[in-house]
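Q: I'm writing up a methods section and want to include an example of the input and output format. Could you take the sequence below and give the corresponding predicted structure tokens, formatted cleanly so I can copy it straight into the document?
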Amino acid sequence: MFGGAGIYCDGRVFAFVDDDALFFKTDEPGRAAFEAEGLGPFTYMTKHGPGTLNSYWRAPERLLDDRDEMLEWAGRALAVAGRATAGARKSPRPQAKKQTSVKSSKAAAAANASGGAKKAKSPRGKASRKRSAPPVKKSAPGKNLRGR
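A: Here is the clean output for your methods example:
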């Protein structure tokens, strides 16, 4: 994703370090505190020019020397990360069901009803099988493929 290091708590990224700078996750109401400090959002370069990630803003350097204030800012960032993931899905998307043809379903049902296991036939009436790879092209007479 980027060359920095994410900072997690309870499975949520609430901050990261990039280029020796700490960035905290924030939202619209929280941006005022960063702006009051004269700080800006995380910026990065793309092939089309600079990009901005408005959900992470640079933390004041003075926090590195003030443990209590660092915990206060980190707590706000963690709360924002919690709100951001509250609406996120807890489980992966459901997989689409595989569609089966009516003929093969009927053949399978008939085999189960008769007690015998029969191979389901493809729509062309032949037993299903994998095709082999296409044949390798041969060189024209008198030509050597190895370049000798």
